[in-house]
Design brief:
Low-confidence stretches: none
Protein name: Signal transduction histidine kinase internal region domain-containing protein
Mean pLDDT: 83
CATH topology of the largest domain: Heat Shock Protein 90
Structural class: alpha+beta
Shape: rod-shaped
Strand content: 5-15%
Number of domains: 2
CATH class of the largest domain: Alpha Beta
Order of helices and strands: HHHHHEHEEHEEHEE
Number of helices: 8
Largest sheet: 5 strands, mixed
InterPro entries: Bact_2-comp_sensor_kinase, HATPase_C_sf, Sig_transdc_His_kin_internal
GO molecular function: phosphorelay sensor kinase activity
Keywords: Membrane, Transmembrane, Transmembrane helix
Radius of gyration: 36 Å
Pfam families: His_kinase
Length: about 350
């Protein structure tokens, strides 16, 4: 944490301008005006007192700043002692000696000793020492909160990176298996598959951002769907309904891919009457992304899995309470529905 002497000075000035006139009003029944008056003598004594009081607050603040984090309590006590003796001694010299030379007048009257100044100014030491200590603890508390938030954010970024790293190897393994099958079968589509994979890798490597537009994510999914169509060597029944007003919306990269992978793994892909549906639409302030598929009979107990858990964790880290992931498994159909609150 960096020291904030400028901030302390501003707080002290406001405090002094408020408290000192009130003190004079309470003790003397009137406000002299201090250094805001046109009386040179009063201005001198106001600056002498105000400067000494600021020095008290400053030394106490710096003592806490330097020694409190490392728990060097003895040094802290010594620093506070210095904060008492040096400013009060300085004020004594200014008020009782320099003022006599300049104005032929002293603040406390002739014959006042330094010991009396120490006793009389102990009240001010307590007041402005507390000001310096409170300012330190307030700034330190704000710094600690900011640092904690930064650590939480850094941990979230690390966790997001880890979650994303779980997606890519799983997807690449499926893609390589598809290309292997095409090469093994000596399919003319093998080169097309390699080209699609290269586009996917470009998206993975060069669009490596926390968020991308929905349009970019759908283009990536289109390449994935093309690979899957080559893999199955049959027409796949997949339909898309996309609200064009959502195309420029920013969403986490690879957010929809696990939903599509889950549908391809567990869904019935060639049923003419039951297509895999990908829909993106708006609903009462929410952007909704839905993938629905008919479940293969032999895999009714296996839907869901790591991919959807990954999506859930990423949504929680990025959007907090402004997201929902609903999983529905009923009537031989499986739906994964992502809702993200729109703040634009």
């Amino acid at each position: 944490m960096k020291s904030n002497i400028k901030g302390l000075f501003i707080v002290h000035l406001c405090f002094y301008l408020l408290v000192d006139p009130l003190r004079e009003l309470f003790l003397n029944g009137q406000i002299n005006g201090g250094f805001l008056s046109f009386n040179l003598k009063q201005t001198f004594f106001a600056l002498s007192g105000g400067g000494s009081f600021f020095l008290i607050a400053l030394i106490v603040y710096l003592s806490f700043y330097r020694f409190s984090p490392s728990r060097k309590w003895l040094y802290l006590v010594l620093g506070c002692a210095v904060a008492f003796f040096i400013p009060v001694t300085l004020r004594y010299l200014l008020d009782q000696h320099v003022a006599r030379i300049l104005f032929g007048f002293v603040n406390y009257g002739s014959g006042v000793t330094l010991q009396y100044y120490y006793l009389d100014n102990f009240y001010f030491f307590i007041m402005y020492g507390i000001l310096g200590a409170v300012f330190y603890f307030v700034t330190y508390s704000r710094f600690s909160e900011h640092r904690e938030l930064e650590l939480i954010k850094a941990n979230q970024q690390m966790e997001l990176s880890l979650l994303r790293s779980q997606i890519n190897p799983h997807f690449l393994l499926n893609a390589m298996n598809t290309i292997y099958s095409l090469v093994f079968l000596k399919s003319d589509q093998a080169l097309q598959a390699v080209d699609k994979l290269s586009e996917i890798l470009k998206y993975t490597l060069y669009e490596n951002k926390e968020k991308v537009t929905l349009k970019q994510e759908l283009e990536h999914l289109e390449n994935y769907l093309s690979l899957q169509k080559m893999r199955f060597a049959k027409d796949l029944n997949v339909t898309q309904e996309i609200d064009p007003n959502l195309l420029e919306m920013k969403i986490p990269q690879f957010l929809l891919l696990p939903l599509i992978e889950n549908a391809f793994k567990h869904g019935e892909l060639q049923d003419v009457d039951e297509p895999v549906t990908i829909t993106c639409y708006q609903e009462k302030g929410w952007a909704v992304f839905k993938v629905r598929n008919k479940i293969k009979k032999q895999e009714k107990d296996e839907v869901g899995g790591i991919g959807l858990q990954n999506v859930q964790k990423r949504l929680e880290l990025i959007y907090g309470s402004d997201q929902k992931l609903d999983i529905k498994d009923q009537n031989e159909h499986f739906s994964a529905i992502i809702r993200i609150r729109r703040n634009d």
